[in-house]
Recover the amino acids of this structure.
């Protein structure tokens, strides 16, 4: 399974200018391929954002040539999911003006839909995205974004880690050394936001990028 | 009726750092005052955005001293609504890094809730807000934001005006002189986005500001 994708702005796909093609030599029936792709896209391409502005024509195509013959569905699923996740992450990593890729994980949710709602709200917040541009371990912006997502959120049960360091727990900030954490947010390959809701077993992953002055320049100066 | 308000960021109020106090010398019962204020706030303070990031503690208080004695409810309503609308507009006008106030009107909707959903989506789009920073009459960004709001949207029946000039109608761009319109977007007191859905009588007004490099600087450099 191999894949290709383009898109760096007007990115908040809901299979609406993002374009991706995934190819496999597995033999797979069209209906099964469509079902597989829809499920994987829901957890990969539809879980990225650059600017929260869905395009009118995002497209992911899965092409199956069949030369390899039938493949175990679970093996094909895992291969397609792996390729789609790698492509999806690469889009915000290459987002307009972006200097950092951010992975938001919301875990401990009652349902995956709740986790996704929190993760999307965090990933779309300009205040969270500018804090990351500044290397600011600003837990308040992250927690307040989640709190406004509309999905259930009990601060008393929740905790937040940045780059693996707990910065907020049970509704209260946890003391941490700011300078080293800020340095890690700037230097490590990915900014990792990990919010545990503490109420269940479901989780969702979402990918975004920082919001920089370069993003504004590109989009204020670009005329169509 | 007089009022005061503060707040320039973390502004997407849902009566969650915005603070406003409205005072009147009308004699009005607490229950009537609360009902009046809730209705007016729903159409004024809850219809502004700077960054789409709701604060945890927006507050609007209506204080009624009673010295003026009883007042006709309609007259009090209009006075409170007028004060709240003026205060609400002044917040994004004074938003972080903002150079322009934007008024989004969505009309011709089946319901006010539909109109509000479209207006909020347009007002929160970073692509729309950067286009305004650049004086770009970019109808595509506006129409595509509305189309992704989730509320009913039929391009064949809709039309869009910028500063009163029709730029898009029935799903098709309408030729216009770009340079003068761009100049008016930069020079006039307010950027007026007016989307007519063409399906009903309901409308909603929403206020936002442009998204500039100064916004990013303020929020990437500000540490908490």
């Amino acid at each position: 399974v191999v894949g290709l994708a383009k898109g760096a702005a007007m990115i908040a796909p809901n299979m609406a200018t993002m374009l991706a093609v995934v190819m496999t030599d597995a033999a797979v029936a069209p209906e099964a391929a469509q079902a597989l792709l829809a499920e994987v896209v829901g957890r990969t391409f539809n879980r990225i954002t650059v600017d929260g502005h869905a395009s009118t024509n995002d497209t992911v195509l899965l092409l199956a040539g069949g030369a390899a013959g039938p493949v175990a569905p679970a093996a094909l699923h895992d291969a397609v999911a792996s390729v789609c996740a790698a492509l999806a992450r690469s889009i915000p990593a290459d987002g307009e003006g972006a200097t950092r890729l951010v992975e938001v994980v919301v875990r401990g949710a009652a349902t995956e839909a709740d986790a996704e709602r929190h993760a999307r709200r965090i990933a779309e917040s300009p205040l969270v995205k500018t804090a990351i541009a500044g290397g600011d371990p600003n837990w308040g912006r992250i927690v307040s974004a989640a709190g406004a997502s509309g999905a259930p959120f009990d601060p008393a049960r929740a905790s937040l880690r940045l780059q693996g360091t707990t910065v907020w727990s049970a509704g209260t900030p946890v003391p941490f050394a700011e300078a080293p954490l800020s340095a890690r947010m700037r230097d490590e390959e990915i900014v990792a936001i990990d919010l545990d809701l503490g109420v269940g077993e479901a989780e969702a992953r979402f990918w975004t990028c920082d919001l920089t002055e370069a993003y504004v320049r590109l989009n204020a100066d670009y005329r169509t």
About this structure: Helices of chain B lie at 30-43, 73-93, 112-124, 126-133, 139-147, 178-187, 213-221. Chain B touches chain A at residues 9-10, 12, 14, 16, 51-56, 124-128, 130-131, 133-134, 136, 138, 140-141, 144-145, 147-148, 211-213, 215-217, 219-224 (CB under 8 Å).
